[in-house]
Design brief:
Helix content: 40-55%
Strand order of the largest sheet: 4-1-5
Order of helices and strands: EHEEHEHHHHEH
Strand content: 5-15%
Number of helices: 7
Number of strands: 5
Largest sheet: 3 strands, parallel
Length: about 170
Amino acid sequence: MREILVIDTSILCVWLGVPGKESCGASDDIWDKARVNRVLDKEEKQGTKFVLPLAVIIETGNHIAQSQNSWECARALCDIVLKSIDSASPWIAFSQQDALWNPENLRRLANEWPKYAVSGLSFGDMTIKAIAELYAEARFKVRILTGDEGLKAFEPVAIEPIPRRYKV
């Protein structure tokens, strides 16, 4: 089964070294740059494809703009965005997320989000959840790489392929 890794803002900020965002996660599950590098290197070698959600680009860009010495981090983020646009391995083409942004899906998100907001799930995280579900429905094994346990809980369960019976 093809594997997808949806990159969350918390992990991307750590990976880029955004000042003030050099680590994330619960106290018993800390993510630092070395750990993020190890995981992403391993996943890339295994052929896992990476997805960069629009919400992550916006949120990470906000964190970078509010930090000191933001030029290097901004350049690094833009390099990743360009690789995603161009579908440069291991990134999946950004355009595959277009289905999420049509009026019908935005309406669905807007109607569903308030019940998630009361439990602390942001609208950005809701769109990350929706992207993960989009790829899961396309029969990918999807994982969300995040330091946020709340978002990680919304990782879709892999849909097992239905075995085919062959006639002899």
